[in-house]
Amino acid sequence: GKSADKLFSLSGLFAVYKPKGPTSAGARNLLKERLLAEAGVQTNGNKRNQVLKIGHGGTLDSAAAGVLVVGIGKGTKMLRTMLAGSKKYTAIGLLGKATDTLDATGKVTEEKPYDQITKGDLENVLQKFTGDIMQVPPLYSALKKDGERLSTLMKRGEAVEAKPARPVRVYSLSLQQFQPPLFTLDVECGGGFYVRSLVSDIGKELSTCATMQELTRTKHGPFTLEEHTLYEDKWTIDEIARTLQHCTSLLPGEPSHKKLKTEHPGETAVSCE
């Protein structure tokens, strides 16, 4: 039918809102099912399902929400370059508690007093985590050892050695709110950065401990939460066609791209490097 033809002709990158709960792959699969159902494409035993190429770039943990970049058609080949683009997050940290996963989904492993910590202490510490820094990734993560995710190995109770610290980049880091034990951070970072490791490391630096309560990705590459993100009620063929047209101008190789670059000379995100 007509809508099936339109669906299979879609190509490019766009952004969807991933709610708290599903994995990034789960959100992508739901999107794919919705689109195939709207197009009236039977998925059982129909090979057409394999033909609809949809992928995502830059996995968000299940407990996190926000911008998830999706590639459709030829756009799936562009996701690799997207992964390198900078990302912005708003994170809420909790002082005085540490968990094994470094976020609210884990078991509490440590509790320490935090009432001595002032807003000034927290702001001073943030400077140490800005710029090019070394970061040890979390044990519970999608990083792999012998082809298996560390989080899978951990859940099976297998001993997992900490990965070595690796260089990561923090473009900006600021304290938005301080209501002990909670604090809210805005962070813009490069690829491979773990915000929950940052929150945990900030706790240690303050001689207490901390774990991440909430995480929202507000920007990935040129895609922002406010402007470019499709919420679940807009996961339709027409809405995606519309957003793809709008988003093409955000990506490299477009005439309007040059204009964007001069407007934000310091913004690497726009060029998706």
From TrEMBL:
Role noted for this protein: Pseudouridine synthase that catalyzes pseudouridylation of mRNAs and tRNAs. Mediates pseudouridylation of mRNAs with the consensus sequence 5'-GUUCNANNC-3', harboring a stem-loop structure. Constitutes the major pseudouridine synthase acting on mRNAs. Also catalyzes pseudouridylation of some tRNAs, including synthesis of pseudouridine(55) from uracil-55, in the psi GC loop of a subset of tRNAs. Promotes the processing of pri-let-7 microRNAs (pri-miRNAs) independently of its RNA pseudouridylate synthase activity.
Record PANTHER family: PSEUDOURIDYLATE SYNTHASE TRUB1 (PTHR13767:SF2), TRNA-PSEUDOURIDINE SYNTHASE (PTHR13767)
Known catalytic reactions: uridine(55) in tRNA = pseudouridine(55) in tRNA; a uridine in tRNA = a pseudouridine in tRNA; uridine in 5S rRNA = pseudouridine in 5S rRNA; a uridine in mRNA = a pseudouridine in mRNA
Family, per entry: Belongs to the pseudouridine synthase TruB family.
Span of domain Pseudouridine synthase II N-terminal: 50-195
Keywords for the protein's UniProt record, in alphabetical order: Acetylation, Cytoplasm, Isomerase, mRNA processing, Nucleus, tRNA processing
Subcellular location(s) of the protein: Cytoplasm, Cytosol; Nucleus
Domain (tRNA pseudouridylate synthase B C-terminal) ranges: 196-230
SUPFAM superfamilies from the UniProt entry: Pseudouridine synthase
Region (Disordered): 253-273
Main location: cytoplasm
UniProt GO BP: mRNA processing; mRNA pseudouridine synthesis; tRNA modification
EC number: 5.4.99.25
The protein's name in its UniProt record: Pseudouridylate synthase TRUB1
Originating species: Aptenodytes forsteri (Emperor penguin)
